[in-house]
Amino acid sequence: MLVFDLTGPMAHFRKYYTNTSALTYGFPPRTALMGVVAAVLGFERDSYYEKLDCGRFAVAVKVPPRRLFQTVNYVRSKREDLPLLRRLQRLPGTQTPLEFLFPGGEYRALRFRIFFGHPDGGLVREAAARLKEGRPCFPLYLGLTECLASASYVNLFGPRDYELLPPGAPVALTSVLNAAHLEKVDLPAVSAARLLRERAPYAFGPGRTLRPPVAVVYEAGGQPLLVRLRVPAYRFSLPTAGDGETVAFLEG
Fold it and tell me: From its phi and psi, is residue 191 left (phi > 0), alpha (psi between -120 and 50) or beta?
């Protein structure tokens, strides 16, 4: 199991159902996580959906974000517009409100902790080696190409290096949770938390068609949630996480 951090000054993970105003998720959804791993490994665009769809992904928000709307000018770039672009002439554009994530409080960068596993152990080890050496095949982004990101290796865990917590046990979960796996939330423990439930993309089919999205639950500020799950949870011992970090994979 590979664990790494994805950081950057700003992010935009577009909600699939937005139109005139581009809203963002507060975390990279599963499809974005697949794209990050594909960029690390050097998979070409649209070539990795089937291969990485059998992987396992979890993501934890490590820095509380703040949201800001910025109006962005979109310029037409169709084939018939290229001669005008080459002559630096003015083209008709469209102004669209775009929502960005920025680090909240005194933090200087957003940070998302990603957990990635795959039946092909060689693929996980290659991704770990590239991250450890700081040489992903392609540049990394937090959603948009304008939101540059960097990845830092945290650890590579073997099958016996983490603790499996059975379904129904109370756990302090730090990751974004697939709502279908939630059995109960300890409400007194989260009275000061900001719980969000959203529908997020899960996977792509042939031709980049979006498969049915899933409902997810997470704490907006990245605080742990005391919950009981219908699926196992996993506790990883990390030097930066005190007693460890407990996550549930989006796949279950």
Answer: alpha
